[in-house]
């Protein structure tokens, strides 16, 4: 294993999508050619000035970028320790970071002449972001979503339908995000000629982990500049929640070669890492192959994928992006976990102290950041990716308070 | 020479097209599988494909996914599947057995440990649906010294370049997936299959099997005219599902479907 100092992190993955032993292309033969086609198109258009100009214009005028970096002064003061800054991805159109990627992939789909878009979704944020861009570009859109997630994210299901998407309920397996992904893959393999599969996270077969990262890296590029403007330097630490890991890698990637910046990814510890009921493959899983890539997984000793648990549907996934797996192994990023309870407490704290209602996913990052900041000096800075807003979680939180809304 | 190559050589001498049934090991329960394998051989199967259950069978349709789920309810692991092959070999030392499944159970067991155990159990071929030749070097270097053939899929989307690469990597036989889609789906267009198998034969002298979308004796017969092997899965697994409450009826029912296919294939 190479040491951290000898690695240029911006040069990963290799030409076949490997991040060290992770990533790669583990799919059935039918998908090999379409994935090569996608890789070629992606490599071509990421060098294409007209494509990049259209993407930038959409990010500015449709998504509302750049999203602000906000110094949470009251929160920092009450918490004690380091100054906490929030990258406000919750202020994007559709309410989360997901749209950065769907805008990019949908433009690519259009360039490739595909008329039909499919996607998988857990919390529904990626589904909404996909249905949104499909509506705007006049593309047919089908979103696969587990039965369990449909029940706990009713509002987003309705939003997708309003936007003209068909939401397909998935009742196989654990009826959550991983099963939605299986079903979307099956659709893709069957309708390969006219269909573009917009994967919402930095997992899946090459080129998805690299492509989604590159579309999300706008988060980190902006944040780096904004922190320099506001504080005169780089943050001392970055914190982001990790399900599949797209908002995290989007923030981390532009900072990977800045060795003074400590990097923390926060997984969902559910009822606790010892309880077995969690969704923390990096903290408590083992390497394996699922959904087109090699990465850390929640699996049993026979290699069967096991059911995960998290209060937040968006983190309820048994795998994680291969780049995170690699960053963990080489030691560049540290992966920790926050329980349902800790995330909920952070949700209430941020809401009451700063007037910002975070998504339950992002609340995991807030929870760890508060803990981390307390052990740091008040002149130091922690930048947290506030990846989404909490509107979609109102009924989940209300139910815990015994209310039905 | 592997048991698979031996078998194809014998078939070629007899002018017979191979019939390869697929069933999921341990579906609907562990006791069913070994007697079912023997019954399938008696009904005219030349090679047996044994599915290794996996929690996330992405390339399979609902029929085979449910078979996996039934087997997993009994906790059937890769080691259990190998034990079934071992038991089958007590009475049948000539019918090749190919394991078909997904990479992760093998990955977690470890390639060397798996290859050794599979060899000892009497496995002849391994088809991992989600392992293209590009990622297969390590597994192949464990399988080859044990005379276990790596079987690879080719699809309607496979280009000439890839065809060559796959043929160079495969041994035993190659497997053409006749429809764009998942197992048990779609209708196969025999004209397209004929064109594609002819194209594949330009790249290899290995036997060419055709599967996905073979639903009855008629399609089996049509495919047999352009292929060296007819591979049939979902239609058998569906019958097994229908009879899951009366497992003693499964072997004769599956044998009946295979016999009719065997008969139709042998008419050509």
From TrEMBL, chain B:
UniProt pathway annotation: Amino-acid biosynthesis; L-tryptophan biosynthesis; L-tryptophan from chorismate: step 5/5
EC number(s) reported in the record: 4.2.1.20
Origin superkingdom: Bacteria
PANTHER family xref list: TRYPTOPHAN SYNTHASE ALPHA CHAIN, CHLOROPLASTIC (PTHR43406:SF1), TRYPTOPHAN SYNTHASE, ALPHA CHAIN (PTHR43406)
Active-site feature positions: 49 (proton acceptor), 60 (proton acceptor)
Family in the record: Belongs to the TrpA family.
Organism phylogeny: Bacteria, Pseudomonadati, Pseudomonadota, Gammaproteobacteria, Chromatiales
EC supergroup of this enzyme: lyase
Protein name: Tryptophan synthase alpha chain
An annotated Gene Ontology molecular function: tryptophan synthase activity
Catalytic activity: (1S,2R)-1-C-(indol-3-yl)glycerol 3-phosphate + L-serine = D-glyceraldehyde 3-phosphate + L-tryptophan + H2O
Keyword Lyase: yes
Species the sequence originates in: Sedimenticola selenatireducens
PROSITE patterns per record: TRP_SYNTHASE_ALPHA
């Amino acid at each position: 294993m190479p040491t951290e100092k000898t690695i240029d992190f911006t040069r990963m993955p290799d030409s076949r999508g490997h991040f060290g032993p992770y990533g790669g292309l583990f799919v059935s033969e039918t998908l090999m050619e379409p994935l090569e086609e996608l890789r070629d198109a992606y490599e071509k258009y990421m060098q294409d000035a007209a494509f990049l100009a259209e993407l930038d214009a959409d990010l500015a005028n449709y998504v509302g970028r750049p999203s602000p970096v906000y110094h949470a002064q009251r929160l920092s003061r009450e918490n004690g320790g380091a100054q906490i800054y929030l990258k406000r991805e919750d202020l994007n159109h559709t309410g989360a970071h997901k749209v950065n990627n769907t805008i990019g992939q949908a433009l690519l789909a259009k360039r490739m002449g595909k008329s039909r878009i499919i996607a998988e979704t857990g919390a529904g944020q990626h589904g909404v972001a996909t249905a949104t861009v499909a509506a705007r570009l006049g593309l047919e859109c089908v979103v696969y979503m587990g039965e369990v997630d449909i029940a706990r994210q009713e509002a987003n299901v309705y939003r997708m339908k309003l936007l003209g998407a068909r939401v397909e309920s998935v009742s196989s397996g654990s009826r959550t995000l991983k099963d939605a992904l299986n079903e979307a893959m099956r659709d893709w393999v069957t309708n390969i000629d006219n269909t573009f599969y917009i994967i919402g996270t930095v997992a899946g077969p090459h080129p998805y982990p690299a492509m989604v990262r590159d579309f999300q890296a706008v988060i980190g590029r902006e944040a780096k500049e904004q922190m320099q403007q506001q504080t005169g330097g780089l943050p001392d630490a970055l914190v982001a929640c990790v399900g599949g890991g797209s908002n995290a890698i989007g923030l981390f990637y532009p900072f990977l070669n800045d060795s003074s910046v400590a990097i923390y990814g926060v997984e969902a510890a559910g009822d606790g890492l010892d309880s077995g009921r969690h969704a923390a493959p990096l903290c408590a899983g083992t390497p394996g192959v699922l959904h087109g890539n090699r990465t850390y997984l929640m699996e049993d000793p026979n290699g069967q994928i096991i059911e995960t648990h998290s209060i937040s549907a968006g983190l309820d996934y048994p795998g994680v992006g291969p780049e995170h797996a690699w960053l963990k192994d080489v030691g560049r990023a540290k992966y920790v976990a926050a329980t349902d309870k800790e995330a909920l407490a952070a949700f209430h704290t941020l809401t009451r102290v700063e007037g910002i209602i975070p998504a339950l996913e992002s609340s995991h990052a807030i929870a760890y950041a508060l803990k981390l900041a307390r052990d740091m000096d008040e002149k130091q800075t922690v930048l947290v990716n506030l990846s989404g807003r909490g509107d979609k979680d109102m009924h989940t939180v209300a139910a815990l308070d015994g209310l039905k809304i | 020479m592997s048991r698979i190559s031996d078998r194809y050589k014998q078939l070629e001498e007899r002018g017979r097209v191979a019939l390869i049934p697929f069933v999921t090991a341990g579906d609907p329960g562990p006791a069913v599988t070994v007697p079912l394998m023997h019954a399938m051989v008696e009904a005219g199967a030349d090679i047996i494909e044994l599915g290794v259950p996996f929690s996330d069978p992405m390339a399979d349709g609902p029929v085979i996914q449910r078979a996996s789920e039934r087997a997993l309810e009994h906790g059937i692991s890769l080691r259990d599947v190998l034990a079934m092959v071992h038991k089958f070999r007590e009475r049948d030392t000539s019918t090749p057995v190919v394991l078909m499944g997904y990479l992760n159970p093998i990955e977690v067991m470890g390639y060397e440990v798996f290859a050794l155990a599979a060899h000892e159990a009497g496995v002849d071929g391994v088809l991992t649906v989600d392992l293209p030749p590009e990622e297969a070097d390590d597994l192949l270097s464990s399988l080859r010294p044990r005379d276990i053939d790596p079987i690879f899929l080719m699809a309607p989307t496979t280009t000439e370049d890839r065809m060559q690469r796959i043929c160079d990597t495969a041994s035993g036989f190659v497997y053409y997936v006749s429809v764009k889609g998942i197992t048990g789906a779609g209708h196969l267009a025999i004209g397209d299959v004929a064109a594609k198998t002819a194209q594949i034969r330009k790249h290899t002298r290995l036997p060419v099997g055709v599967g996905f979308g073979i639903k009855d004796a008629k399609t089996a017969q049509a495919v047999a005219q352009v292929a060296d092997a007819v591979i049939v899965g979902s239609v058998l697994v569906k019958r097994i599902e229908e009879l899951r409450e009366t497992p003693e009826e499964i072997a004769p029912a599956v044998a009946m479907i295979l016999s009719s296919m065997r008969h139709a294939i042998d008419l050509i």
